[in-house]
Structure formats: structure tokens, C-alpha cells
Amino acid sequence: MLDYDRFATEQGKVMQRTRQDAVDGLLPEERERLILERLRAQGRVLASELAAEFQTSEHTVRRHLRELADQGHCKRVYGGALLISPAGVDASVRMHEAVDRKACLAVVAASIVRPKQIILLDTGSTNVAIAAALPDNADLTVVTNSPEACARLLNRPGFDIILVGGRIARHAAGATGATALLQIQQIKADLCFLGACAFDPDEGVAAFDAEEAELKRAMVQASSQVAIAVTSEKLMTAAPFYVAPARAVDHLFVEADVTAARRAQLAAVCDNVMVARS
């Protein structure tokens, strides 16, 4: 049986939104497209700033952000939204993306390693590049859950390699699950190169898989220092599973195209922000 009072209320809301959109001077689809473009350009948007720019209400902007989040474009956060990280694709794809840029990051990241250290090396295409960038005769113990990283170190002098076992997650191309977690919890590392699917100064480090996020948290706990080398498209983005706060990162390596203003935001929460220049 039709609830006429509820129907009338809903129709009234629709008419109210239509009138508001007409006053705003932009069709809802146009405004939503502009918000998505802003998200892709900046990573983070604030509802109050968008409302002022589009001369509309924050309620209207939040409605657009909810719709974009439902479509998988962003994650709602306090006051606005973050772009979803593009790193959710399988590792087999990421290994062939931005190879030169990752190699540049890897050289700078490898420069902080010191002889005799125990290094925890997480999965990720940038971390595989770091494995390749470590110098021969480095006198390091490298503990990794990444078969790809292990392959870059085999038959090279100066490395004692420990490959963490367990179920291999295809999307991450590395060991995960209970077996890998137990092994990581028994390690005391000097330095961890942590793989980050997404990084934001306020939201911290995040991952796309729950088990992977749990293993990354264990790596942070097992290490005296944490380092992350991150390509620019992962900055100011979100992923579903929380790993650690940004302040847990001791060394952050970013690309040269990161603006001075954004570097200042990152430096406010990370002890050392280093720029990889080609």
C-alpha cells in the first residue's frame, strides 16, 4: 500500500534539490564532474571550500561526495573526501608502470641503508626497485615477503636473505596470512621499507587488503625505523584498510614534482622528507 505522506515528503526533497541546483547555475552532473576533476588533481577536497567556490551549500557538496564515494572514486573523511589510490591493481601490472620513476626513488631510498643492518623489505614494485638499487657488498640481512625482491638480491655479494613464507597473495605478489605474520613478529629489524598503497598526512598509511594491512602493521612494530618511497599518484589518497599514522614514518621519499606546499604538509608529520631528483 502506498504511503502518501512518505511519497509527498520524498517528492518535496527532490523538488528542493532541483530548485537548489537551478539557483547554483550548474547542473548536478556538471558539478559532480568538476568535483571529481578536483579530486584527481589535488587528492583531497574540503566540502566547505567546494561549497564556497561553486556558490552552493555544503549539504549539496556532501551529497555529491557521497555519490562519488558510492561509485568508488573517493573515500569520505572528516570535512571532505580523499581520492581512492590507483594502486589497487595487481602487482603484475604495477611492476611495469613508472619504472624509471620508481628506480629514481629507489636510489635515494637505498642511500640511507648502513652496513650490518637488518632490513625488512615489504612487497611492492617500488620496493623491488629498492632491492635492485642496494649496492653489492652492502653487508646486510634482508628479510622480505616479496619473491620478486628476493630475486633481485640472489647471487649478489654482501646479502644474507631471509624469504618470509606463507600464502602468496596474487595482487601483492608476496607472502601474507598467519604464517607470514608469525615470522615477521619474530624479527627485530633496524629499518623497514614499507609498501604503501595510499599515504595522506591526516589519514596515514593504508592498504587494499585486510591481511596485507595486518602484516604491514606487524612490520612497523618489528622495526626501529620505517621508510616509505611513494610515487606522486599515491600521495593524498585513501585505501580501505588502515596501517599506521603518518607520524610512524621516519623517512619519506617523494618525487620531484611534489610541490613545496605539499612537501611542507608531509614534513609536518614525517621526520625526514627526501626528494628524488632525476
From TrEMBL:
Cross-referenced PROSITE patterns: HTH_DEOR_2
Protein name in the entry: Glycerol-3-phosphate regulon repressor
UniProt GO MF annotations: DNA-binding transcription factor activity
Organism: Paraburkholderia sediminicola
Presence of the UniProt keyword Cytoplasm in the record: no
Gene that this sequence comes from: glpR_1
Pfam families named among the record's database cross-references: DeoRC (PF00455), HTH_DeoR (PF08220)
TM region(s), chain numbering: none
Keyword line: Repressor, Transcription, Transcription regulation
Sequence ranges assigned to domain HTH deoR-type in this UniProt record: 28-83
Source taxon at top rank: Bacteria
InterPro entries for this protein: Carb_Metab_HTH_regulators (IPR050313), DeoR-like_C (IPR014036), DeoR_HTH (IPR001034), NagB/RpiA_transferase-like (IPR037171), WH-like_DNA-bd_sf (IPR036388), WH_DNA-bd_sf (IPR036390)
Native organism taxonomy: Bacteria, Pseudomonadati, Pseudomonadota, Betaproteobacteria, Burkholderiales
Gene3D superfamilies: 3.40.50.1360, Winged helix-like DNA-binding domain superfamily/Winged helix DNA-binding domain
